[in-house]
Hints:
Order of helices and strands: HHHEEHHH
Radius of gyration: 22 Å
Strand content: 5-15%
Largest sheet: 2 strands, antiparallel
Shape: elongated
Helix content: 55-70%
Number of helices: 6
Distance between the termini: 31 Å
Strand order of the largest sheet: 1-2
Amino acid sequence: MAIDCFRYLGFKSLSEVDRLTIPEYELLMEAYQLKMVDDNYHAHWQAFLNFAVQAKKKAGKRKERPVYSRFDKFFDYEKEIKKVKTKKKDKKERFSGIGKLLRKEGT
């Protein structure tokens, strides 16, 4: 967790990491992952624009057509966002019963 805070979140000291709660850490990491998806989206968009004019495939005897006719065929932004969101949900489902178990043992 501390390494992620220094590497990805820009933390400068261990005291910053110590003050961070687990829910705050998970929120910050999800925000970082969404930012990375946005950065990838922009990079793919630029690559698409640069390559779109040149990329062609055969469409008959002597005709050609573009390989990617639409940007969403090249990079599915919504799919990437869903990947990040489902990872968070999977973690919650995996440990959803632990709270009840711990409460039973404590009584």
